[in-house]
Design a protein that fits this description.
The complex is a heterodimer of chains A (387) and B (970).
Chain A: H1 10-13, H2 24-41, H3 53-64, H4 72-75, H5 80-95, H6 99-105, H7 108-118, H8 133-156, H9 161-173, H10 177-186, H11 190-218, H12 222-232, H13 236-246, H14 248-263, H15 265-282, H16 300-313, H17 319-342, H18 346-350, H19 356-381
Helix pairs in contact in A: 2-5, 2-6, 2-17, 5-17, 7-16, 7-17, 8-9, 8-12, 8-19, 9-10, 9-11, 9-15, 9-19, 10-11, 10-15, 11-13, 11-19, 12-13, 12-14, 12-19, 13-14
Chain B: H1 7-21, H2 24-33, E1 47-48, E2 56-60, E3 66-75, E4 79-81, E5 84-87, E6 92-102, E7 109-112, E8 115-135, E9 139-141, E10 148-157, E11 160-168, E12 178-180, E13 198-200, E14 211-214, E15 217-224, E16 228-245, E17 250-253, E18 258-262, E19 265-272, E20 275-282, E21 288-294, E22 313-316, E23 321-328, E24 352-358, E25 361-365, E26 369-370, E27 373-382, E28 389-396, E29 400-403, E30 408-410, E31 413-414, E32 421-422, E33 424-432, E34 435-443, E35 465-468, H3 472-476, H4 481-486, E36 520-521, E37 529-533, E38 539-548, E39 552-554, E40 559-562, E41 567-577, E42 584-587, E43 590-610, E44 628-630, E45 635-645, E46 648-657, E47 667-669, E48 688-690, E49 693-700, E50 704-721, E51 726-730, E52 735-738, E53 741-749, E54 754-760, E55 766-772, H5 775-778, H6 786-791, E56 793-796, E57 799-803, E58 809-810, E59 813-819, E60 823-826, E61 830-831, E62 834-843, E63 850-856, E64 861-863, E65 869-871, E66 883-889, E67 894-903, E68 906-909, E69 923-925, H7 929-937, H8 939-951, H9 960-967
Parallel strand pairs in B: 1-35, 36-69
Antiparallel strand pairs in B: 2-3, 3-6, 3-35, 4-5, 5-29, 6-28, 7-8, 8-16, 9-10, 10-11, 11-12, 13-43, 14-15, 15-16, 16-25, 17-24, 18-19, 19-20, 20-21, 22-23, 23-24, 26-27, 27-28, 30-33, 31-32, 33-34, 37-38, 38-41, 38-69, 39-40, 40-64, 41-63, 42-43, 43-50, 44-45, 45-46, 46-47, 48-49, 49-50, 50-60, ...
The chains are: A mainly alpha (387), B mainly beta (970).
């Protein structure tokens, strides 16, 4: 390690609160590795590099052709987090990671919370208002139901509670990236996060095929089915694929209602964090309780995020600013995901039970589908909403 | 030119119905034999705007002038039969097109099967077709290349016909419809009048010529009737040969009396009085390979004229060399080598002389096989105005079939610096009888479109399509675009807004077009769209709608603002509403009968019009202060485009109506081209007159036009009634009741075609009398001339009697039409029962008749949390015509809003018009001429967005010049 400060005591070099950080010289190699992985992975603001993974996937999408109008790699959730992670994982596992990079890679612990805070303007609750109260309630209920059932079922399937937590967050919100967002809150391991991520994406892909078949049997209207896809399938492209597989009208309503799922996403991961945090407080001495262990109080960035979310929901951040901030989020998570990929061995992903996470996702996800279809069907039958 | 009516759409339906009803075998055999040139793909053909292998970009030439290039692939006239898709010769074609033209000696860029090339030489000719008759509705071949003439429709003035036609290129493109007639005055005669500035009486003459001169194209009619046009001659430009280079040129600074090394050659330049003697030798200089006097090329337009191009270059085909000498501006400023646009193309004062050496030369001949693949034939098409290259098409030379066993057909082999390969392939599979269920286009990078069978369960009976964004698509969709845009199978298409820090704000929206992305609601309960017949049995479609334009979100105050004139109700017929023929229109949901009208002529003299594109901020905000008014709230004159014909500026001037729609096609104004001068390669009239609108330019420049005189009609007021007029036939001494009066016929003169009448009040006293007629004396100016119209009508109070012009006296009895309960509407007058709205009647620029009725808001309309709804103009029964309802608005983004109408107790709502978030509530409701005009303006972008809407994905972001053009659709 090329450390100039390794032999000098901390007390001797302490000058300010920033002294606890590694020196710039120490972190530079790692940061540069993250930087180059980020720009080789995604189209990022200010870096017009056309030769990146995002564009490669887009090219392959066009070679394969759309499925139900959607791009295949998007159905499998490739985006700025996954691309950078995949690139980092590939480099780390094929070429290895020099020790000199590791201090810089530790900045993932700064980038992740920062990215989460910057995500706040992405979730303006008022944007869901156009959907009406009943759809909002259905999406919210599906969210809480899925998270709760997943956390409960995890005990029966003997899934580590950290693994279960990130999986519950990803599945409940329908967005696999929530697995990554929950990582620092839950203190989950990288392997658990990726395992959960893959499980959620795979189940979403299956659900996007299965749900239209069930939907046809249930006899829902396109509008009702569009709402069901949003709550019961998974990430945007998967839900839209399911919707368009049913009908073009259902597909458009998938898009229309997706904003509800989207803006309620923070509620999903805050709910999982809250449950697991309270559980840890209640069973502090239980060795089986790992989730949020080491998190003694609600982290400052979570509080900042919640405050930011509330402020953003009051429409303080206008749309052009939101777009600009989201470009920074892409930068932030690209760097962090690159670091995560570099820090992880492929084996670690399966260390937490090769198929256990996926099995949990399937069981919980199936129950969620049943719950959502029943709720939507009842609302339609009793005309609680004009589907 | 009259605004295009909806009859074309009905024609399209009729044609489609005819095709459906024709026996299939006959149709297919005919299709295979038929020449598809000039025809469009099937009416319901899928349109895919983007495929990566088909480029759509803007580049600048060596003088910094932008050229907008695009490529496309189309397939037409195909059919599926017995599990096999058949495509006739010329059915599949690749098209590379520029928005205007590419010229030699300019390093103008051009796409050829995805490769960037430069046009070097062009061999052009003017084709002349003599004595050419054509019937209405025909698209008739003019030559063996496949150019057709289309006789679209005919209308009349003073009961004499004038026709609208278009020259269609083999690819299907036509630049504009031109009017010709052999019955009216020549436009030069307008100069004989001396109009005072301000308002004058209606013109008696109607100006329309038998010759339409459009630059390099001239159409001279011999006889125009309602059914046939016979042309004396039709002249249009064709391109015989073009030479391109596929590589960027080598640029070597020229050294006088010395040589420069180029690869293994020397290029000498010896100064001569009129240029440089350019000599190309081998490396040692011992062997002269070629030698020629070459004049430096500069961008004067005449230099590429036929027979002059060769003076400016030395081409050595056997050495794969083409040499030009150019005078560089400062370091090639503005070229696409140095992508900066801070300079002006003609503005340099010093520079250097350079050899520009092109290699990878490629020559194409019109009608010959494509050099790399003889399965395809080359078509070179000229810009009908300038005569220079606008389009290259490569079409299949022989018919081909696709079936389950052989489901792919390769497009032409493309040139590549690395790997010559098919530029694209058409793939079709999953055949079942006469249907195909999968077909798509794959580009040279192996990327493909979506399956172009959009209805997976129904399949398609043909494999027609259009992929790409070439401007020809607009021509191809002429007959069907309204039907396509009105198609509600995908619900109301809502394009999301682009949210910016500064909304487009205007203080008054008069003469503005709505946001080009405004949602289009083709029909809504409560808005009439109905056909009615006049006394002569002519069917007239009346249609109502409303438009919101210029609306914006004032996010500092959490409100939505519709500026004054931003909301208008519109009622319009398929053509103008004429007096004396019992024509009807719809006014706020009620059928009304036009009684009479008062029009005038507005004349302006000696004024300047600025070039409209000069905008202060570069943010594309539509600032229209350059507009010049023609009458108060009547018309606006806008100088929107210009081009050069042999360096003479040709300005494109639009007369914009109050509604924001242009009046007909733009006026092309230029000077110095005498249509009678056979030595000139361009023919353009110096003044412009069409019908009763004319303009006489004093000076046409690139930045402004000085108008010596300009005139156009204005409608002051019109009279109408909701009570159906009744016909009476009265002999002398006979009477009939007319409102509160008694009408008495005093005499009926069959010979003079006149009837004398008197109106008596209840006491029997005569309150008015008049001799109506003589009809035959006025016949030649009927029914449009108002002085003549008034001679045939007697109006008193709210009643009116008019003579039947087709049958004034029958069996000694005068034939009269009686109008009662007549109402009067005056321009700029408040609506009597709803003063929130002002009446703005619009006039036909040709004929002074009532063209459209607008009701707009003189005051801004504010929609916010406390006022989320707004009632449109009230009908006479006090109920609103429609209601605007804001459902979800967060102060910046509109997430949900709709329009609703109420009929009895039932409320009819549109879909959510902010299905995707919007930053304004601009909307087009109904389908009449005004709405159609707005849809036409942004047709290509609208059609393109529908494909992304259908799939539920976002369109790719535009970048660079393309983005600017995309935003600049208004």
């Amino acid at each position: 390690m090329h450390s100039t400060t390794a032999n000098i005591s901390y007390e001797a070099r302490r000058k300010s609160i920033w002294s606890s950080l590694y020196s710039f010289q120490e972190v530079l190699p790692g940061l540069l590795a993250m930087f180059f992985i980020a720009i080789a992975s995604n189209n990022l603001a200010g870096v017009p590099n056309p030769f990146n993974l995002e564009n490669l996937f887009h090219y392959l999408d066009n070679v394969i052709g759309p499925v139900n109008g959607q791009y295949v790699f998007q159905i499998f959730n490739t985006n700025f987090v996954w691309n950078a992670f995949f690139m980092g994982l590939f480099i780390g596992n094929v070429f290895g990671v020099p020790d000199s990079w590791k201090r810089g890679l530790s900045y993932i612990h700064k980038f992740m919370p920062l990215g989460i805070v910057m995500l706040a303007p992405h979730f303006i609750v008022g944007h869901a208002a156009k959907a009406g109260l009943v759809p909002i309630l259905i999406v919210a209920a599906a969210l809480v139901f899925t998270a709760s059932v997943t956390l409960l079922l995890a005990r029966f399937l003997r899934v580590d509670d950290r693994h279960a937590s990130v999986l519950a967050g990803g599945l409940a919100t329908g967005d696999p990236h929530v697995c990554a967002i929950l990582m620092p809150m839950i203190k989950a391991r990288g392997g658990q996060v990726i395992n959960a991520f893959v499980s959620v994406v795979l189940f979403g892909a299956i659900a996007s095929v299965v749900l239209p078949l069930i939907g046809a049997k249930v006899g829902l209207s396109p509008q009702a089915f569009g709402l069901a896809t949003v709550s019961a399938v998974g990430n945007g492209a998967q839900a839209f694929s399911a919707g368009f597989a049913h009908s073009s009208e259902a597909g458009r309503f998938s898009i229309y209602y997706d904003v509800v799922r989207h803006v309620l996403m923070p509620a999903g991961f805050l709910y999982v964090f809250g449950v697991m945090f309270v559980r840890k407080l209640m069973f502090r001495r239980d060795p089986a309780v790992n989730a949020t262990r080491g998190v003694d109080s609600i982290p400052l960035y979570v509080i900042v995020f919640v405050v930011s979310w509330i402020v953003a929901s009051l429409h303080v951040v206008k749309e052009p600013a939101h777009v600009a901030i989201f470009e920074m989020v892409k930068w932030d998570f690209s760097l962090a995901a690159g670091a995560l990929g570099l820090s992880m061995s492929v084996r670690e992903i399966w260390d937490w039970g090769t198929w256990r996470g996926f099995a949990l996702a399937c069981v919980s996800g199936t129950l969620r589908i049943a719950f959502v279809l029943a709720a939507v069907w009842l609302c339609a039958k009793y005309q609680l909403f004009n589907f | 030119m009259h605004t295009r009516d909806l009859i074309s759409m009905l024609f399209a339906f009729a044609l489609a119905a005819t095709l459906v009803l024709t026996p299939a075998g006959v149709r297919e055999a005919a299709a295979l034999e038929a020449n598809p040139h000039g025809f469009e793909p099937a009416d319901d053909m899928p349109y895919i705007p983007d495929l990566t292998g088909l480029r759509h970009q803007s580049f600048k030439n060596q003088y910094g002038q932008p050229r907008h290039l695009s490529e496309g692939v189309a397939l037409r006239q195909s059919f599926v039969k017995d599990g096999k898709a058949t495509v006739p010769a010329g059915g599949l074609y690749y098209i590379s097109e520029v928005e205007d033209e590419v010229r030699p000696l300019m390093r103008d860029p051009f796409f050829i099967l995805g490769e960037h090339s430069y046009l070097l030489k062009l061999k052009t000719a003017r084709r002349v077709v003599k004595d050419f008759p054509i019937k209405k509705g025909e698209k008739k071949f003019l030559d063996s290349d496949g150019y057709r003439l289309w006789f679209d429709y005919v209308t009349d003035h003073y009961q004499k016909p004038y026709a609208q036609l278009a020259l269609i290129s083999p690819a299907g493109h036509w630049p504009l419809e031109f009017p010709v007639s052999t019955h009216f005055q020549e436009m030069n005669e307008i100069k004989q009048h001396d109009f005072p500035e301000g308002e004058s009486e209606q013109l008696w003459n109607f100006y329309l010529e038998d010759t339409y001169a459009y630059g390099a194209s001239v159409f001279k009619a011999k006889e125009v009737t309602f059914d046939t046009v016979v042309f004396d001659s039709i002249e249009y430009p064709v391109i015989e040969e073009a030479m391109f280079s596929f590589s960027r040129p080598w640029t070597l600074e020229l050294r006088q009396e010395d040589y420069r090394l180029y690869k293994d050659k020397r290029i000498y330049a010896f100064r001569r009085p009129n240029g440089f003697l350019v000599r190309v030798t081998n490396l040692s200089g011992n062997e002269v390979l070629a030698e020629k006097l070459v004049r430096p090329s500069t961008p004067q337009g005449y230099k590429d004229a036929e027979g002059r191009q060769d003076e400016y270059s030395l081409t050595i085909p056997e050495q794969d060399m083409h040499i030009e000498i150019m005078i560089d501006p400062d370091y090639l400023s503005n070229s696409d080598f140095v992508p900066t646009s801070v300079d002006v193309p003609y503005g340099w004062t010093e520079g250097t002389l350079s050899f520009v050496v092109y290699d990878d030369l490629f020559s194409l001949k019109n009608g010959e096989p494509w050099p790399l693949d003889d399965r395809f034939k080359v078509g070179l098409e000229a810009n009908a105005l300038t005569g220079r290259l606008q389009r290259l098409i490569l079409e299949n030379a022989a018919p081909f079939t696709l079936d389950s066993a052989s489901g792919s057909y390769d497009g032409p082999v493309k040139f590549s610096h690395f790997w010559n390969r098919p530029a694209f392939s058409v793939v079709a599979k999953n055949f079942d009888g006469d249907k195909v269920f999968t077909y798509y286009l794959r580009d040279r990078f192996f990327q493909r479109t979506d399956n172009m069978v959009f209805s997976a369960d129904k399949g398609r009976g043909d494999i027609d399509f259009f992929v790409g964004r070439t401007p020809t698509l607009v021509s191809l969709l002429e007959d069907t675009f309204l039907t396509r845009l009105a198609d509600q199978s995908l619900d109301t298409v809502v394009e999301p807004s682009h949210f910016t820090s500064y909304p487009k704000v205007v203080s008054n929206a008069a003469f503005y077009a709505p946001d080009p992305t405004a949602p289009f609601v083709p029909s809504q309960k409560g808005f009439t769209r109905k056909k009615d017949k006049n006394r002569r049995g002519e069917g007239l479609l009346s249609s109502e709608g409303f438009v919101i334009r210029g609306s914006y979100v004032d996010y500092d105050n959490n409100r939505i603002v519709i500026p004054p004139s931003g909301l208008y109700y519109t009622s319009r017929n398929a053509r103008n509403v004429r007096a004396l023929t019992g024509e009807t229109f719809v006014f706020l949901g009620r059928k009304a009968y036009l009684a009479s009208f008062e029009s005038a002529t507005v004349v302006r003299k000696n004024f300047d019009i600025d070039y409209w594109r000069l905008q202060p901020t570069g943010q594309l905000n539509p600032v229209y202060w350059q507009d010049e008014a023609l009458g108060y709230n009547n018309k606006s004159v806008r100088f929107t485009e210009h081009t050069y014909l042999d360096d003479r500026v040709m300005g494109e001037v639009n007369i914009v109506k109050y509604s924001g729609n242009p009046f007909g096609a733009p006026f092309h104004l230029t000077q110095g081209f005498d249509p009678k001068d056979k030595a000139s390669r361009y023919s353009v009239t110096e003044l412009f007159a069409e019908g009763s609108t004319w303009t006489i330019p004093a000076y046409v420049g690139p930045n402004y036009i000085r108008m010596a005189e300009m005139g156009t009609p204005v409608l002051k007021r019109f009279f109408y009634t909701y009570t159906e007029p009744t016909q009476v036939k009265l002999a002398a001494g006979e009477t009939a009741k007319l409102g509160a009066y008694t009408l008495e016929v005093l005499s009926a003169d069959a010979g003079n075609t006149s009837v004398s009448i008197a109106l008596r009040d209840a006491s029997g006293a005569i309150v008015a009398n008049k001799t109506l007629g003589s009809v035959k004396e006025l016949w030649d100016v009927l029914p449009q001339q108002q002085v003549a119209v008034k001679k045939l009508q007697l109006m008193h109070g709210n009643v009116m009697a008019e003579i039947d012009i087709d049958n004034p006296v029958e069996n000694g009895k005068g034939v009269l039409w009686l109008f009662t309960d007549i109402l009067e509407s005056e321009m700029d007058q408040k609506l009597a029962w709803d003063p929130r709205f002002t009446i703005r009647p619009d006039v036909c620029g040709h004929c002074y008749q009532l063209n459209e009725i607008l009701l707009d808001n003189p005051e801004p309309i504010i929609l916010d949390k406390n006022n989320p709804t707004y009632d449109g103009p009230l009908k006479e029964d006090g109920t609103p015509m429609f209601r605007i309802v804001i459902d979800s608005f967060d102060g910046e983004m509109i997430h949900a809003w709709h329009v609703e109408t109420q009929i009895k107790d039932k409320v009819f709502k549109t879909s959510n018009l902010a299905f995707r978030p919007r930053n304004n509530i601009d909307v087009l409701v109904g389908a009449n001429g005004s709405v159609e005009g707005f849809l036409r303006q942004g047709m290509l972008e609208r059609m393109a967005y529908i494909e992304y809407w259908r799939r539920g994905v976002h369109p790719p972001l535009h970048e660079g010049l393309a983005a600017r053009e995309a935003l600049n659709l208004q």
